[in-house]
Structures are given as structure tokens and as C-alpha cells.
Write a structure and sequence with these properties.
By secondary structure, the chain is mainly beta. It has 1 helix and 39 strands. Strands 1, 26, 28, 29, 30, 31, 32, 33, 34, 35, 36, 37, 38 and 39 form a 14-stranded antiparallel sheet that branches. Strands 16, 17, 18, 19 and 20 form a 5-stranded antiparallel sheet that branches. It binds (Z)-L-Arabinonhydroximo-1,4-lactone (6LW).
Length: about 500
């Protein structure tokens, strides 16, 4: 994939933008190894799973791989629903190795993986049959004991090399104010205390982060008097649902939190379409309790040198044998259905499911990472039918689809599926385009978050719009679940060839 020139920090008036990892990248877990930072996110029904990012400055992040990129590591059986699969990893660096613990809610439960290089390869899974509960965390005490803490919040000692558990699991804490869903625990030794950081309130508008501390990894834990230490519940801030955090020290020893949040847009009640994104906030300490700084769409840069912004992937000509790590498929990616070797310089997708309604559809896509953006693809439909789709899940997606001599726009919203528009085209390859324009100014309380336009480019390269659809139907508030929009190519019948795909932000 070629890179897109993102404005440098100085060009942006000495502010950095939050989210630091935009698009559907929830449940961030972060660790430091010397001068390098690594971060992992949930990936649900997508394959490969668990994107891994690298940064030197906590602000600019580059995806270096996916931890679970082999079928032996990631089993997403055909019945895996959207928003099933992989939930909430914890990523740690300990004893010269990287450790990743995660729950596959659709098949294998809690699993542990190790790697010497977080870019991969990661080990095959070490099963943890004695660990019950989602959102597992691992932490080691000074005696070398490894503690696994899960949502609820409870804890059991494990052998991370075998997956064996020792003794009964013990309840540690149920959160600060009787809020629902105490989850996402992370346990740290900082100074004289063990800190137990959790999320509570549920991952929707009431989400938040609370903390307790004790003298041993098993407690007893004393809740922070200022809990929740992070929440935007009941506010009109542009970033909502803030929660599920993880702590890390910056290069200068200062403390920071990565956490998830969403950016609802449009009228009331507000719809967020990019899923839960990864944000960054400074943390200070008062009386040995962490205090989370202001969270807003732009923030002052941290006081250390910032590295060149990573190039956001923008165009792929499919000239390499392997697909870049930002490309994801649904549930699996058998080589016979998805290859760049059938036609040199093209991505060939062979249909297995019948349409994007089908969980088995052959699909290769990337996350929508900007509120306003454009995706284009050159497709050759001579041997099949397929196109460009923007999806939230199997029941919520819009697409522009090509067959020889014709394109059509289709929309699926819950139980309703409709053909929105047709147009005859010349036979041969055609450029399909999806544009997303955020609602800048709300003039009507019922206005949607954005408009999705779908169409083709004519022989002169001029965009011919076939349909402009309200984006609210491809939002989490409508579709439910834990994911966000993904834009990508699919095949419905036969084999469909794609010469290139490009994606870029428009003014947000
Ligand atoms: C995850 C839980 C959560 O397991 O959402 O926001 C769930 N927090 O901790 C799925 O991402």
C-alpha cells in the first residue's frame, strides 16, 4: 500500500488529534519495551485478528501486523455472529517476551500467545480452560507468580507457559458505584501499591474507568474516592462512551492512558459510525491516585520529540504477494478465494457466500478511519459479480456492484434489502466509488450523522452519483454490536478482479 501524506504536527498548529488510532480499534491494551510502544485491539469476526500497532511517541501509530493471522490461532466457525469472535486483549512485555491474552467468545475461550517480535510470528494458542470470564489481564508479581484477572472482577493464578490454573478464582472488586459491567481489568504494580483499573457502566454512553488499590495483587482493594476517574457520561462532549483504559509511562516517565471512545454525529440521539476508537490522555498522580487529563479532539502534544507521522495506507495496487496488515476478511481468508497471484497486479476474489448479507461472503476490506472519506476501486467483472461495500455487519451495508455492462446500488438495512439504482456502463473494467460526507452542521434534530454516496466514474473520471443514503443505518446505534464501519471489495458470484483500491480522508 502506498502512503498518504498526513500533515505534520507543526503544520497542525502544535496540536495533535485524538483519536490517535481512528476507526474501529476498541479495547486498546498497551505496553512499553524500551523506547518502543505496542498496542493491540479487539477485532471480533474479522480475520486476521488483533491488529498490533507500534509507536515511539504514543501519538503516531503504525500497524505492524495482526497477532492472530493463522487459522491455527484463530478459529471463527461459520456460525460466528458479527461482534462475536475476539474480545479485549491484554498486551504485556515481560521477561524478554511479549504476551497477549484474549477471549475468543465464539470458539476457544481464553487463550494466551507469546512472541519475541510483536510484528509476529505469534505462537499457537495456549488454552486457558480454567479461566472463566472475558477481558483477561495478566500481571506478574516479584515472586514470579502470574495473575490472571477477568471481568467481574475475579482473579486466578496461572502458569502462562502451560495455561494451568492454581486454586479457585477469587472475586476482587465489583466496581465503584454498583454500575453495570465491571470489566476490562488491568493490574499494575506502581510504587508501593497494586492498582486495579477497570471499566464500568457498559460500553455505551455510561462507560467509564474506575480504579482501586491494594498492597498485594490479590487485594484487598480500596476504591479511589474520585471514581470514576474517566467518564463523559451525561455530558455533551464530542467524544463519548470513554472507557476501557490501559496505563503506560511515556519516554520521560510521565503517565498516560489509552482508552476507547466514540464520536457521535448528527441530531438526537447521535450516531457513531466508525466504531469505538483509541484515544490518548495524560495522567497525573495526586495522593497516589491517577487523575486523567482533559480529553478532546485536539490536545497539546506530549513534551518529547514527535516522530514523523505514520503514513496512513491509501492506495493498494495489489503488486505484492501478501496483503498489507490493514486488510481484513470475514471469519477466514482461504487462499483459494483471495489471491494476488491469479492475475499479476490484481486482487482476485472468488465467491463463496452469495452477497454481503452472507457471513461467508468473500470480502477484503479496511476500516473507515475518517468521518469524511472516499474509497475507489477499479473492478473487472468479466468473470463474476462483485463490487465495493461499506458495512457495519451482514444486516447493515450499502454497496455498488458491477456485472458486465451494468452497475447497481444495493442497500440492506435490518430485514429490508433493496436495489436503489441501476446504470448501464461500457463493458470492461469500471471505477466504483463510495464517498462519505459527515454532517457538519445540524439544522434538524433528526438529521443523520453523515451521507454515503455511491456511484461510478465515467470515462473522463467524473463521478456519477447513483444514490446518496443516510449513514445512520450503518451506525452502532442502529445496528448494535461492538464493531464499526469497514469499506471493502467482495465477490457475489464467480471470480471478480480488482486492479487497485484507494482510500483517503476528505475534510472532516
Ligand atoms: C469488551 C468489554 C468492552 O469485552 O466491550 O468496552 C467488550 N468494553 O470490555 C467488547 O469490546
Amino acid at each position: 500500500m502506498k502512503g498518504l501524506d498526513v500533515p505534520s504536527v507543526s503544520e497542525r498548529d502544535h496540536t495533535i488529534s485524538n483519536p490517535v488510532i481512528p476507526g474501529f480499534h476498541p479495547d486498546p491494551s498497551i505496553c512499553r519495551a524500551g523506547e518502543d510502544y505496542y498496542l493491540a485491539c479487539s477485532s471480533f469476526e474479522y480475520f486476521p485478528g488483533v491488529p498490533i500497532f507500534h509507536s515511539r511517541d504514543l501519538v503516531h501509530w503504525t500497524q505492524i501486523g495482526n497477532a492472530l493471522d493463522r487459522p491455527s490461532q484463530l478459529r471463527l466457525p461459520s456460525g460466528t455472529p458479527s461482534s462475536g469472535g475476539l474480545y479485549a486483549p491484554t498486551l504485556r512485555h515481560h521477561d524478554g517476551r511479549f504476551w497477549l491474552i484474549i477471549t475468543n467468545v465464539s470458539s476457544d475461550g481464553n487463550l494466551l500467545f507469546t512472541a519475541t517480535d510483536p510484528a509476529g510470528p505469534w505462537s499457537d494458542p495456549i488454552p486457558l480452560p480454567g479461566v472463566h470470564g472475558i477481558d483477561p489481564d495478566i500481571a506478574w508479581d516479584d515472586d514470579g507468580n502470574c495473575w490472571c484477572t477477568v471481568a467481574g472482577v475475579s482473579q486466578v493464578r496461572i502458569d502462562p507457559r502451560t495455561g494451568e490454573t492454581f486454586g479457585e478464582s477469587r472475586r476482587l472488586w465489583s466496581g465503584a458505584h454498583g454500575a453495570k459491567a465491571p470489566e476490562a481489568p488491568h493490574l499494575y504494580r506502581i510504587g508501593d501499591y497494586w492498582y486495579l483499573l477497570i471499566a464500568e457502566g457498559g460500553t455505551e454512553r455510561c462507560h467509564g474507568v474506575s480504579i482501586a488499590r491494594g498492597r498485594t495483587p490479590g487485594g484487598p482493594f480500596e476504591p479511589c474516592p474520585d471514581n470514576p476517574i474517566l467518564t463523559h457520561r451525561g455530558t455533551d462532549r464530542p467524544i463519548q462512551n470513554t472507557g476501557h483504559g490501559d496505563l503506560v509511562q511515556g519516554p520521560d516517565g510521565s503517565w498516560w492512558m489509552v482508552f476507547l471512545g466514540v464520536r457521535p454525529r448528527g441530531g438526537t440521539p447521535g450516531w457513531h459510525v466508525l466504531g469505538r476508537e483509541t484515544f490518548l490522555a495524560p495522567v497525573s498522580w495526586v495522593d497516589d491516585w491517577p487523575v486523567v487529563g482533559e480529553v478532546s479532539p485536539t490536545m497539546a502534544p506530549p513534551p518529547w520529540p514527535l516522530h514523523e507521522p505514520a503514513l496512513a495506507p491509501v492506495r493498494d495496487d495489489f503488486d505484492l504477494g501478501e496483503l498489507a496488515p490493514a486488510w481484513v476478511s470475514l471469519r477466514s481468508r482461504p487462499a483459494e478465494n483471495c489471491t494476488t497471484s491469479e492475475r499479476a497486479g490484481w486482487l482476485s476474489l472468488r465467491a463463496r457466500g452469495e452477497s454481503p448479507d452472507d457471513p461467508e461472503v468473500t470480502f477484503v476490506g479496511r476500516r473507515q478511519q475518517h468521518l469524511s472519506c472516499r474509497a475507489r476501486v477499479l473492478v473487472d467483472p468479466a468473470e463474476g459479480c462483485g463490487g465495493l461495500t461499506v458495512r457495519l455487519d451482514e444486516e447493515h451495508h450499502y454497496e455498488i456492484e458491477a456485472t458486465p455492462g451494468q452497475v447497481r446500488v444495493l442497500a440492506r438495512i435490518g430485514p429490508l434489502r433493496t436495489v436503489v439504482a441501476y446504470r448501464a456502463t461500457a463493458t470492461g473494467p469500471v471505477v466504483l466509488r463510495i464517498g462519505v460526507a459527515v454532517t457538519e452542521k445540524v439544522t434538524d434534530a433528526r438529521q443523520g450523522p453523515d451521507t454515503v454516496s455511491l456511484g461510478v466514474e465515467d470515462a473522463e473520471g467524473t463521478f456519477v452519483e447513483l444514490a446518496a443514503l443516510d449513514g445512520r443505518y450503518l451506525s452502532t446505534e442502529v445496528a448494535g454490536g461492538f464493531t464499526g464501519r469497514v469499506l471493502g471489495m467482495y465477490a457475489s458470484t464467480g471470480t471478480v478482479h480488482f486492479d487497485w483500491f484507494d482510500y483517503g480522508p476528505l475534510e472532516d
